Amino acid sequence: MLFFVAAISLVFERERSDAAILKLCKELKKGKEVGKSAWLESKLGSFQQTDFRIKRNDINAAREKETINRKKKTTTKKERVVVISEDATNERKRKMTPKFENGQEGEDDETDNYQADNGILNCLEDESGSENENENMSDEENSITREFIDWGDEGSMVEDEEETDDE
Amino acid sequence: MTYAMKLGPTLFCEFCGYAERSSKERNSSIVCKNESNSSLICVAIRAWEECINMMGTFSPSHDLSSSARVSAFLMSSIMKYKSNAFAVERNVDDDDKLYSVINFFVEPMRNGKRGLLKEILMLGLDNEAKAFCEAIKSAASFLENSQHRSLIGLSILKCFEMGRNDDEPVHSGLLNVDVDEINIGNCLLCAVKAIETSIHLDGGLDGETRLPTCTSLYYQNSANPSLLSKNWRYSRKFPSLDMSDWEDTEVRGGNATQTFGYSVLQVCCHELSKYIDVGHAFEEILESQQVPNLSLQNDLACIEVLATATNGTLSKHIGAIASLAFKTIENSLQELEFLFSKITPHVSSLKDHRTLQEFIAGRLIAICDVLCTLSPFVENMDSTNTITANTLKYAKRFYMSFTKILLSFIGRAVDLTAESSNMPKLIDMISSVFSGRFATLLYVVQDQKEIGKKILGQAKIEGLGKGTDTIRN
Fold this sequence. Notes:
The structure holds two protein chains of two kinds.
Chain A: H1 2-30, H2 34-48, H3 56-86, H4 89-102, H5 105-128, H6 133-136, H7 139-166
Helix pairs in contact in A: 1-2, 3-7
Chain B: H1 2-27, H2 35-56, H3 66-81, H4 94-106, E1 109-110, E2 113-114, H5 116-122, H6 126-140, H7 146-158, H8 188-201, E3 210-212, H9 225-235, E4 249-251, H10 255-259, H11 264-272, H12 280-288, H13 301-307, H14 314-343, H15 350-374, H16 386-407, H17 423-447, E5 449-450, E6 453-454, H18 458-472
Antiparallel strand pairs in B: 1-2, 3-4, 5-6
């Protein structure tokens, strides 16, 4: 575990330093210091020549895989929303349990990784000074968040109904 | 202070008397090693050390400076044992006087006479020599001049050298030691302590960095509270918070650079690498890369003493030196993080900002060098891989500081590539050596197995790398 954390954070910090060098390269290019920018970029090249360089084909494949998985998840959640709106507490409980039963380990790991990646992205975006994070979000992510909001509202409504029934 | 002045010289006389008696016993082949006496003498040396600390304690109401008080104390200690042993130099400033007195203790050979530390080592009094090194460390801490401190540390290391020029006549020193047999090889505890002391006196990993000059003497007896607080910080060797002090900087090393050219820790790590096997993954890399051989001119005898110890305690001593190295790296990184978080945000002028950047870059070069030197050997340093994990952790913190200093150049990126700057050298070092070494070390770690499972998840690493790659695009 000690190795695990140390190794991951080391790679992450190295990537951050690469990103900082790229930023400086861009700034040098803007200031028409092409020679200096090329020199700095050559240093970055040697950073990437290690065995831990990022393989673009793998990334594209992973992206495609992730988008397919997300589409699947959105469809199941839409169905669930409809069911909840039709019936109240019993139905809700019944439909909530399959979520955990059907949830495979691989899917959990993927969501965890996805969240971790998002965390890193947010950190880096904060440092790079980019604003309006919501603009960068994809349509799919927006739709997921909207569904969650809708689901939450309906859940609260269901609880209200329960209270009135008890009375 | 008065009691310290009375008690200290008596304690020193006890110590010297014990050492001289053990020398005579050794010559007359009467071996009666009394351990209780030895431990009592160690206590006496520690009490003497406390007296030194008490004498040097900062007191603004005293007429004499700290270094003048400590040198007076040390001289009275020597005079009490032998009145004609040390000639007081006149017309020199307080700092030079203190340097001269401490040198009397630690210099291996002075005007044909052996130094006190050398004599104790020759007698094989390991525990006593260790305690004495600690006392010297306390005394030398009151030296204002950083070069003097470095030189004292080097003299301590030189005491372990056994060879001498046969043409020079050797007279016995303070203890009248006349031993033909050299017992330095038995002084393992003292060797570790000597390395620790010299690293401390050399200023850790200052290396080629520039430090603000010490000007505490100018603020003595000042009524201004801000100057007094500044003086208080100086007296405790804290870094200066006043940026005006950073304008007058001195290059670290000085005369010590003529001996080593690097900081003591860097030389120790290079020397240590002679005695540890290189990891399999690093063999090819080390063959292809030109590794600087720092120990061509100067061998560190104390490392040799530890490595050639007959009782098979090499791994223990290597662990001790490795932990010293990591402690020093930790201190340096902490200092850099302190500068980034507490000082850099308050620096307004461009000149001060540049000085700070140069200081940080110099420190990073020294850390980079030590980590690069240690990385091929960490695999074989211990069986539990704790040292490897620590090395990875420090490399991570190193990259954090490196990123911060890079980001500090945003808006003035042209300064980054200035020839007079340390930054091009640092970037070169990282791209050519450091990066490759730690990529290899990660592979080494990946191959380590724990309970039949791989510890390092390649998928996780690529996953994190992926995140940052999207930013680039």
